[in-house]
Design brief:
There is one protein chain. By secondary structure, this protein is an alpha+beta fold. It folds into two domains: 222 residues, P-loop containing nucleotide triphosphate hydrolases (Rossmann fold), CATH 3.40.50; 158 residues, OB fold (Dihydrolipoamide Acetyltransferase, E2P) (Beta Barrel). The chain contains eleven helices and 20 strands. α4 packs across α5. The two termini are 38 Å apart.
């Protein structure tokens, strides 16, 4: 097996479009890494450069100790699983899985045990004699994976392999792919635009935007410590609520003024983010995850209150999402540093976070199903102040140490 290294890798097309810019990234041997980001962020281009399907304009890509920039795809010892299954309809499952071995001139006697072992790993033993048309979508994707596994490559590359499946199958296949990767311990790079897939599957996740790497961390760290407004907005479902606020002094305390509401920051918040003190007297962006908002009275110490009107409720069984309009200035992602977020992404976020007149903000709160709320009633949301995120309005960078 082998790791993968991007060393100042850039991809520029003939028309001057720069798809990937100065990408520096190390995928460890046996690691499952996910590239995630909106359409056009460069994630698929980066994957195709590993495979040799796109030329590297500048920098180096190494698989193990080998620089592979000038190697043909067949010489890189990688196997790729695409969005479309690309199965041969006239071949059986066994023949499809073993096709790569056949191309290597491997004898049937040698190939059969590898095909059967691959089928066992994928739960396809009872389907080896079937044709693709007799399989479900999930089974077809397993066959496509089987063609990659049977080759025993150094690296697996997966380009949105679940996007053609329905929601239930995607959840099942996410777990299956993660299980198989752990079992085989093969270095894997997985591309998706779905941040839920990224968070649930990857050992580490690389968030890209317009060809630039924004952050490369384990999923939980991305969620809890986003590097900037783009990562904060993109990672998490529902999206983080982001409001404009002013930091002020009130005696010995530092307070965060959001609209007409004053939130006194606990000492532990200032201790964890000492740079906040230098922003006293300035405007900042404050981020609030939906689960950091609670029905009034459910949170005791270390909380503040935001008052608003319930505009919609989404019942999700054990929990509910309450859309609450509050008097506060929303931060439109497109208003932060130029280009921090794609225009389409900013538009989607704006629909969630802001009222149409732009004077109020629509917060999404993840509440217990027992919280008794009705549309158009006025409520108070308790804010867990220990879980607030703060961002510089000019650069979009998180405010930390």
């Amino acid at each position: 097996m082998a790791g993968i290294t991007f060393d100042n890798v850039t991809k520029t097309y003939g028309d001057g479009t720069r798809a990937v810019s100065d990408l520096n990234l190390d995928v460890e041997d046996g690691e499952f890494v996910v590239f995630v980001g909106p359409s056009g962020c460069g994630k698929t281009t980066a994957l195709r450069m590993i495979a040799g399907l796109e030329e590297v304009s500048d920098g180096e890509i190494r698989i193990g100790e080998r620089v592979v920039n000038n190697l043909q795809p067949r010489d890189r010892d990688v196997a790729m699983v695409f969005q479309n299954y690309a199965l041969y309809p006239h071949m059986t499952v066994a023949e499809n899985i073993g096709f790569a071995l056949r191309m290597r001139k491997m004898s049937k006697q040698e190939a059969r045990p590898r095909i059967e072992e691959t089928a066992r790993i994928l739960g396809l033993v009872d389907h080896l004699d079937r044709k693709p048309r007799q399989l479900s979508g999930g089974q077809r994707q397993r066959v496509a994976m089987g063609r990659a596994i049977v080759r025993e490559p150094q690296v697996f590359l997966m380009d949105e392999p679940l996007s053609n499946l329905d929601a239930k199958l995607r959840v099942q296949m996410r777990a299956e792919i993660a299980r198989i990767q752990r079992q085989l311990s093969v270095t894997t790079v997985y591309v998706t635009h779905d941040q839920v897939e990224a968070m649930t599957m990857g050992d580490r996740v690389a968030v890209l935007r317009r060809g630039l790497l924004q952050q490369f961390e384990p999923p939980q760290r991305l969620y809890e410590q986003p590097a900037n407004l783009f990562v904060a907005s993109f990672i998490g479902s529902p999206a983080m609520n982001i409001l404009e606020a002013t930091l002020e002094r009130n005696g010995d305390d530092v307070v965060c003024r959001v609209g007409s509401t004053t939130l006194t920051l606990p000492a532990e918040v200032l201790s964890a983010r000492p740079a906040l003190v230098s922003y006293v007297g300035k405007s900042v962006a404050v981020g609030i995850r939906p689960e950091a908002l609670h029905h009034s009275g459910r949170l005791n110490g270390g909380s503040g209150r935001l008052r608003g009107v319930v505009r919609a409720i989404e019942a999700l069984g054990p929990e509910q999402l309450a859309h609450v309009e509050v008097e506060a200035q929303p931060v439109l992602v497109e208003d932060v540093v130029e280009g921090l977020v794609d225009a389409d992404q900013a538009e989607d976020l704006a629909e969630i976070m802001t009222d149409s007149d732009g004077a109020k903000a629509m917060l999404v709160a993840r509440l217990d199903a027992s919280a008794s709320l009705r549309p158009e009633e006025t409520v108070e949301l308790a804010v867990d102040l220990r879980k607030l995120h703060f961002f510089d309005l000019e650069s979009g960078a998180t405010i930390g140490a």
